[in-house]
Design a protein that fits this description.
This protein has a five-stranded mixed beta sheet with strand order 7-6-5-11-12. The protein has a four-stranded antiparallel beta sheet with strand order 1-13-10-9, with no helix packed on it. A two-stranded antiparallel ribbon has the order 2-8. It folds into two domains: 2-20 and 237-280; 25-231, 3-Layer(aba) Sandwich (Glutaredoxin), CATH 3.40.30.10. It is built from seven helices and 13 strands. The two termini are 28 Å apart. The chain is elongated, with a radius of gyration of 26 Å. It is α+β, with helices and mostly antiparallel strands. The longest helix has 42 residues, at 239-280.
């Protein structure tokens, strides 16, 4: 009987990892290859770059500065880590000591040149709603642009990403704090993904407050840790089929073990009834 229970436990362990094998998250160190962060604290962005906001209006980066800013680089069709990062940020913003719009602003830029202002508008309203009425909507701008402007912006902050062969992008997950003059003040990396949590990516109010205060003073804070979270949009060829195969084998094994368990229990009952019958005779 104990053997059957151990087999059941083993089968369960076989099934569980396979059901979650598709995870599109990863962490990496300095050897991140083509994607990652090249720290450029102290350098100034090309603030003359022009993008389009969520309403389709042309906006210069310089027009969004003049106060500290939190820059997030995502793509609006992402279904993996980007929306989780923005959700975590939207929940943290109302808790900050600094007030959005008055003391700082948030700038989200898509590095996918095919994203449109219409898509930016649709995506933006979700996070404005999540931030709640305490956070002024005008303090968070969602931008789109062409390939050349996107390249100049991402290169200026050392943000390296790669387009997937099939769909989406592979890229690091990070908040970039800018001074009022557009200088890179610091990088606040995302290093942990809390599985099962309501908001798998969360930001500390303390870290955000300190980073904004340093950006307001124009400080350049170095020492960016390299073990950050990456968002991967794809699976290696055949990986999906492999995990489904493993899941199927695990489920079949689990069913077989359950059948064996029921058989052993039935056999044990028959044996006990036989013993009781012999004793009565």
């Amino acid at each position: 009987m104990k053997t059957a229970l151990w087999l059941l436990a083993l089968a369960t362990l076989l099934v569980a990892p396979s059901l979650h094998g598709h995870e599109t998250l990863g962490t990496g160190g300095e050897g991140g290859g083509e994607i990652g962060i090249e720290e450029k604290t102290g350098q100034t962005l090309p603030t003359d770059l022009v993008f389009r906001d969520e309403n389709g209006a042309t906006v210069r980066l310089a027009d969004l500065l003049g106060k500290p800013a939190i820059l997030t680089l995502v793509y609006y069709t992402c279904e993996h880590v980007c929306p989780l990062m923005l959700s975590g940020l939207s929940k943290a913003l109302p808790r900050l000591a600094a007030r959005g719009g008055r003391d700082y602003r948030v700038i989200t830029v898509s590095f996918d040149e095919t994203d449109t202002p219409e898509k930016a508008h649709d995506v933006r309203k979700n996070y404005i709603k999540a931030a709640g009425p305490e956070f002024p909507a005008e303090a968070w701008t969602f931008l789109t642009g062409d390939r050349n402007r996107i390249r100049k912006l991402t290169e200026s902050v050392g943000f390296r990403f790669k387009k997937d062969r099939v769909h989406g992008f592979d890229h690091p997950v990070v908040l970039i704090f800018l001074s009022p003059a557009g200088k890179v003040s610091r990088y606040l990396q995302v290093t942990q993904y809390q599985y099962g949590a309501e908001y798998p990516i969360a930001f500390s109010s303390f870290d955000l407050n300190v980073s904004l205060a340093e950006a307001a003073e124009g400080k350049a804070v170095t020492g960016f840790r390299r073990a950050l979270l990456y968002c991967f949009s794809h699976e290696p060829p055949g990986l999906s089929r492999f995990f489904y195969f493993i899941a199927t084998i695990g489920l079949v094994t689990l069913a077989a073990m359950a059948g064996l368990f029921l058989y052993l229990r039935a056999s044990e009952r028959r044996y006990r009834r036989g013993r009781e019958y012999d004793l009565e005779r």
